[in-house]
Amino acid sequence: KQEVTQIPAALSVPEGENLVLNCSFTDSAIYNLQWFRQDPGKGLTSLLLIQSSQREQTSGRLNASLDKSSGRSTLYIAASQPGDSATYLCAVRRAGGFKTIFGAGTRLFVKA
Amino acid sequence: DGGITQSPKYLFRKEGQNVTLSCEQNLNHDAMYWYRQDPGQGLRLIYYSQIVNDFQKGDIAEGYSVSREKKESFPLTVTSAQKNPTAFYLCASRDGSYNEQFFGPGTRLTVL
Question: What percent of chain B has pLDDT over 70?
Answer without folding.
Answer: 98
